[in-house]
Amino acid sequence: MSSALDRLKNLTNKISSYERTRKDNLVLLEELYNSLGINQKVEEFSELFNFKAINLSGASLLNETLGEVKKDKYLQILAIGYDKEAVVKSKNISLGYFGKAQNVDEELKNRVVEFIIRFRFEKSFMTLEHYYTMLESFKSDE
């Protein structure tokens, strides 16, 4: 009995921790959105999440080499928009251009990388919620 109760407590703590982290992440993400000037391209913070994805050119997003500069590339934040009515459905949109990656200040580069990771963290929660809601339609009326 106590084993099941302990597992439930651990699960509850983990979920609570994720929610706190998510809330904090959104605050920090919005700060980066403003400080990196992305608010000049996307007027409302919430509109960021209309993009299918946001990618980075010029630095690595791989866990093993996170933030490592790619030689002779330009540091740029690229959003992938999607318009189902258009002939070409997806479109890359530059949200921030920072010049040659190897010439960009280390702190600025780190903030750009952090922005991408924080965006993806929140986007993953939104995707999870979306599919959770979709699964509700498969539940039978009991």
Describe this structure in words.
The structure is a single chain. The protein has 142 residues and is α+β, with helices and mostly antiparallel strands. The protein contains 2 helices and 3 strands. A 3-stranded antiparallel β-sheet has the order 1-2-3, with helices on one face. The longest helix is centred in the N-terminal third of the chain and has 34 residues. The radius of gyration is 19 Å and the shape is globular. The mean pLDDT is 89.
Unreliable sequence segments: none
Ends distance: 29 Å
Q: Classify the oligomer.
A: single chain
State which percent range the strand residues make up: 15-25%
The main sheet orders its strands as 1-2-3
Provide a count of the helices: 2
Order of helices and strands: HEEEH
The gross shape turns out to be: globular
The overall strand count is 3
- SS-derived structural category: alpha+beta
Radius of gyration: 19 Å
